[in-house]
Amino acid sequence: MKDKSAKKILSDFETGYDLIADKFSGTRAFMWRDLGFIRDSVKTGDRVLDFGCGNGRLVGFLEGNYKKYVGVDISQKLIDIASQKYNSEKTEFVKLSSDFYTLPFKDNCFEIIFSIAVFHHFPSKEYTSIIAKELYRVLKPGGKIVITVWNLWQKQYLKYHKKSKKEWVDAEIPFKSGNKVFRRYHHPFKTGELESFFQEAGFETLKAEEGWNLLYIGEKASVDK
After folding, report:
1. How far apart are CA 100 and CA 97, in angstroms?
2. How far apart are CA 23 and CA 27, in angstroms?
3. Which is nearest to 170 in space by CA: 56, 7, 40, 9?
């Protein structure tokens, strides 16, 4: 995908999620059942990065079992919702620009990173690779990363796939809020494809599973390669 097209998609996400923020937040009140293990992944002394935090629902799910939680998102309205609901000394929410390439954090500053249903929105292999490497940079050696994306090869999603001979397959899935419709860009990751991006970024694979969602759990080696 051309850089101009990718930037347009990312910009549309910022305005689109602001448009549907209230209703979208209402549909994200609870953590999905297959992610119940997340709570046990965090230790009381951990600094947690929630990459693509949305309305901050992960904060409530973790029940304060962390030293510091930082959530980042490109939607100002979702950041506002999260900040109002989960306002404490242990939480921080940061608005990112829609076409960010770097995160506003120092190297090696988080013990664990979560990114729930975010990476399938990235519009190119190049951008996905850049962000995977950026998450590797901010994760401490020995730290873990947990990534999920929708499994868009299930029957109910195939109708949204665009016919293309390109390697990077596209899909648009609508989200309705009243009379507003936001057609969200998705990339249907294939088996092994998600894992390959994080391995190339430097992570060691701990788990890679395919089910209702695709799950990747990786670790940054205690000593950088």
Report:
1. 5
2. 7
3. 9
Distance between CA atoms of residues 216 and 195, nearest Å: 6
Residue 211, judged by CB atoms within 10 A of its CB (0-12, 13-18, 19+), counts as exposed
Q: Does the domain spanning 3-219 belong to CATH 3.40.50.10140?
A: no
Pull the structure tokens for residue 79: 């950041």
Q: Which tens digits make up the pLDDT trace of 110-150?
A: 999 999 999 998 988 899 999 999 999 999 999 999 999 98
pLDDT in tens, 86-111: 999 999 999 999 888 999 999 999 99
With a threshold of 0.85, does the pTM exceed it? yes
Q: What tokens appear for 58 in the block?
A: 């992960």
Burial of 76-108, coded b for 16+ CB within 10 Å and e otherwise, reads: ebbbebbbeebeeeebebeebebbeeebebeeb
Q: Output the six-digit token pair for 124.
A: 């190119």
Residue 18 contacts residue 135 (beta carbons within 8 Å): no
